[in-house]
Amino acid sequence: MLNKRGSRPFSLATRLTFFISLATIASFFAFTWIMIQSVKVHFAEQDINDLTEISATLERILNSQSIEPESHRLEILENVVTGYSNVIVSLEDANKQAIFHSPGAPDIRQYLASATPDATVPDNNVWLINGPAMQMAGHGTHSSWRMIRLPVGPLVEGKPAYTLYIALSIDFHLHYINDLKNKLIMTASIISIVIVFIVLFAVYKGHEPIRRVSRQIQNITSKDLDVRLDPQAVPIELERLVLSFNHMLERIEDVFTRQSNFSADIAHEIRTPITNLVTQTEIVLSQPRSQKELEEVLYSNLEEFGRMTKMVSDMLFLAQADNNQLTPEKKALNLADEVGKVFDFFEALAEEREIGLRFVGRPCWVTGDRIMLRRAMSNLLSNAMRYTPHGETITVSVSEAGGRVRIDVENPGTPIPAEHLPRLFDRFYRVDPSRQHKGEGSGIGLAIVKSIVAAHQGTVSVTSDAHATRFMINLPKERA
């Protein structure tokens, strides 16, 4: 619900107050309307019963088979009619000539033109008259009537001798109904206003858990990321929200922790080669050295500079991956050929370490960047060689299934504990932090593998057991 096109939506309190109040007020006014209609029907039925009783009495007089003259019947009729208050009677003969009117009352037949059928009752011979006030002798002025018409009297040439018109004043009933309607509307209006405030208060109290959760969230800072909201302390409607917020806090805390660890790790990684350079330089300068000794120190320093250069290059690569700036080339590649090229590069190192390299699989094609994928496989192979015992064999297999191509790099060796597996692809993460000697890498090789694979819309995972450690890369198959 928008208060204006493109503007801010109404608050939840406003929405709930509006809809609940609208539903309650509509129900109350519907009840009021039903009640008024019920009273109207009740009075209409009462009026019809009164008219029916009066007509039955008058009909008995006019239907009499006695030999009394008509004037005597009309006299009896006048005496009977005089006993009813708020009733007008007119009688006409078969020639539609008026032969009787209630004493002091006008001929009600003249008002038939302005009469309307009474929709309150199904009888078609009942009308409502709302016209000029008609004066009744001894009974004041009345302007609203309910009237019936019926044939009475003995049959003359197969037709009733008379037509009887009886009108009953309904001013008292209408006055009561109008008074009841005004009182009910006034009461309904007052109650509606009270309902709005009650609903507003109820909504305000109902939103108290939301405000309480909001205050708790506002008090959470970067120093309180370990705080978690209690999902059992909020209504069930907010439980999923609190759980989602807790999960978000867990992810943020993990990012902050990794960022903090990353800063410490990169400072430590850079400090080590710098410390080596400073130490070796101080030792050389502490006393005169021969040219050969100076050359050895320079070569050693050059190795440290190379290590630092590679680390900086790798960090720049990961920074590009974090900012989605890696744009792999889209070329068709045969992974079997690419594995062979990587084997050629590591062949000499494998012989030196007495480690075998074995390929299993068949040509499988993917679309990707040749240099990036070779770098990912080289990092995995380098990592595998680092932890493979002498005399063992590293197996690289390529397979295809379900529109995906899978590369497995498997090496025997000491199994990796299960608690370390989820974090192997974190930057600078090492299963054994104490193992940080020369030649063991900077600790971001697997992070680079993950970034390259992600840039190719693939996934990478790892498993480890007593027999071997296996890294698995899944890439989309090349589309024909």
Question: Topology of this structure?
Answer:
Layout (H helix, E strand, L loop, with lengths): L11 H51 L7 H13 L4 E7 L4 E4 L14 E2 L8 E11 L3 E17 L2 E11 L1 H36 L1 H11 L17 H50 L5 H32 L8 E4 H18 L3 E6 L3 E4 L1 H18 L5 E9 L2 E8 L33 H11 L3 E6 L4 E8 L4
Parallel strand pairs: 8-10
Antiparallel strand pairs: 1-2, 1-6, 3-4, 4-5, 5-6, 7-9, 10-11, 11-13, 12-13
Helix pairs in contact: 1-2, 1-3, 5-6, 6-9, 7-8, 8-9
Q: Report the average pLDDT across residues.
A: 81
Radius of gyration, in angstroms, nearest whole number: 51 Å
Largest sheet geometry: 6 strands, antiparallel
What share of the residues does DSSP label as strand, in percent?
15-25%
Question: If you had to describe this structure to a student in words, what would you say it looks like?
Answer:
The protein is an alpha+beta fold and 480 residues long. The protein is 50% helix and 20% strand. It contains 9 helices and 13 strands. Strands 2-1-6-5-4-3 form a 6-stranded antiparallel beta sheet. A 5-stranded mixed beta sheet has the order 8-10-11-13-12. Strands 7-9 form a two-stranded antiparallel sheet. Strand 10 (393-401) and strand 11 (404-411) form a beta hairpin. Helix 6 packs parallel to helix 9 (445-455). It is rod-shaped.
